[in-house]
Fold this protein.
Amino acid sequence: MRDYVIITDSCCDLTEELSRKAQLTVIPMVLTLANKEYRNYLDGREISVKDFYARLRAGENASTAAVNMDVFTTVFEDVLKQGKDVLYLGFSSGLSSTYHVSTLVAEELSQKYPESKIYCVDTLAASMGEGLLVYLAAMEKQNGKTIEEVRDFAESHKLNLCHWFTVDDLNHLKRGGRVSAATALVGSLLNIKPILHVDDEGHLINVGKVRGRKASVEELFNNMKKSAIDPQGQTVFISHGDCEEDALTLKKMVEKEFHPKEIKINAIGPVIGAHSGPGTLALFFLGTHR
């Protein structure tokens, strides 16, 4: 069996440690902040998450862009030249054109390297939801599964990957077109916190609202209670937009109720954070449905 490499992008928001453990190749996404371009490496070598969120809170605006064809070509071809195959697990097509670009490059390189396998999977996931699917797929690889088996694992589990989010400041969602200006204004005045999830098409959807931060954190937990599959045997991920204390509070709630195999916490990286803002809190687990 030919060896293969699992490739993903930095929207997975994994820690550098987990990325190394999973033996991943991670393509850095790009963001622009104050007219300067940064690559979002997991280790924060060009911009740290602390610096990024501090600058957002100071009023700077950030924008992001999809990975271009040249970058995909370089990364994929580096693997193919080593005689290895490629399995790319990409950021949701419902939120970015990055996955579509990867398929165009895969098609071109398949003609240049006809003996090689190049598979692209649309995770329909974001942040550590994408990261959790990638991590679980990587563990399958380390258990000796073939590239097709790992590809099929990702495809068969992605719609069971639950994403539950809340945000502290509706103005970032307003800038991204997720809520109206009126909703953002009223919500801010009344301390309304939205409850969001990523749907089966990979879009970020507003599905509810509660009043106050404490209630919003509890609502994330309640959604896990409703749909989690075998929570005791699961790896659960929590990501946050520079609000680690809230993430630790949520972790304690999950631990007390479910006693999962492990819970990993990490910051939401600058690319996702550019759209969700400081104070975002997210919970990821496998459930009966998204």
About this structure: The chain has a mean pLDDT of 94. The first helix runs from residue 16 to 21. The CA atoms of residues 159 and 195 lie 19 Å apart. DSSP finds eleven helices and 13 strands in the chain.
